[in-house]
TrEMBL record:
Function: Removes the formyl group from the N-terminal Met of newly synthesized proteins. Requires at least a dipeptide for an efficient rate of reaction. N-terminal L-methionine is a prerequisite for activity but the enzyme has broad specificity at other positions.
GO aspect biological process, one term: translation
Species per Swiss-Prot/TrEMBL record: Allotamlana fucoidanivorans
Cofactor: Fe(2+)
Protein name: Peptide deformylase
Source organism phylogeny: Bacteria, Pseudomonadati, Bacteroidota, Flavobacteriia, Flavobacteriales
GO molecular function, one term: peptide deformylase activity
Protein origin, superkingdom: Bacteria
InterPro entries: Peptide_deformylase (IPR023635), Peptide_deformylase_sf (IPR036821)
Sequence positions that bind Fe cation: C105, H147, H151
Enzyme class, broadest EC rank: hydrolase
Record flagged with keyword Protein biosynthesis: yes
Family to which this protein belongs: Belongs to the polypeptide deformylase family.
Length: 196
């Protein structure tokens, strides 16, 4: 089932998410719905707060980046093969010299800006079977993980922009929170009345 993606302005996006246990209600259905929602919106990552749930879970599938012919063949292959679920994740270390990449977010449609992040990240997490892992990732995979991890910490990519950039996009953000935007996927806007 495709879930509505929560738009900028909803308080759930600014809340630090809570850990979950393996007896989380209807976990398998939620996981399937989140993947379906992400693919429907042509995303490469989706965090639970983006579907209105303040829990520490996000998923990543970087395969759309594998079609970027500007990337080296080995990186294209790595991106094409990367699909993971991260539960109760904690970033242990971010390393290297920060680099800029033009980021967007399904909760903030039609806003893209360069964001600086470190190229390498070490993270511990549970997979969809609640098995523990500690792994190090780099490049675009690390970037997507950092972006989605920020969501479970209540941080949006626009929070990392300069105050000048934030002022320049203020009007567009206001329109998104009011639902004055055209998107080709389901969204829930902060001022929308919930259907009974």
């Amino acid at each position: 089932m495709i879930l509505p993606i929560v738009a900028y302005g909803d308080p759930v996006l600014k809340k630090k998410a809570e850990p979950i246990t393996k007896d989380y209600p209807k976990f398998d259905a939620l996981l399937q719905n989140m993947f379906e929602t992400m693919y429907n919106a042509y995303g490469v990552g989706l965090a639970a707060p983006q579907v209105g749930l303040p829990i520490r879970m996000f998923l990543v599938d970087t395969s759309p980046f594998a079609e970027d012919e500007d990337l080296p063949a080995d990186e294209q292959k790595a991106l094409g093969d990367f699909k993971r679920v991260f539960i109760n994740a904690q970033i242990l270390e971010e390393e290297g010299d920060e680099w800029a990449f033009n980021e967007g977010c399904l909760s903030i449609p039609d806003v893209r800006e360069d964001v600086f992040r470190k190229p390498k990240v070490t993270i511990e997490y549970l997979d969809e079977h609640f098995q523990p892992h500690t792994e190090t990732f780099d490049g675009l995979i690390a970037r997507v993980i950092q972006h989605e991890y920020d969501h479970i910490e209540g941080i949006l990519f626009i929070d990392k922009l300069s105050s000048l950039k934030k002022r320049l996009i203020k009007g567009r953000l206001a329109n998104i929170s009011k639902g004055k935007i055209n998107v080709d996927y389901r969204m829930r806007f902060p001022n929308q009345k919930k259907k009974r």
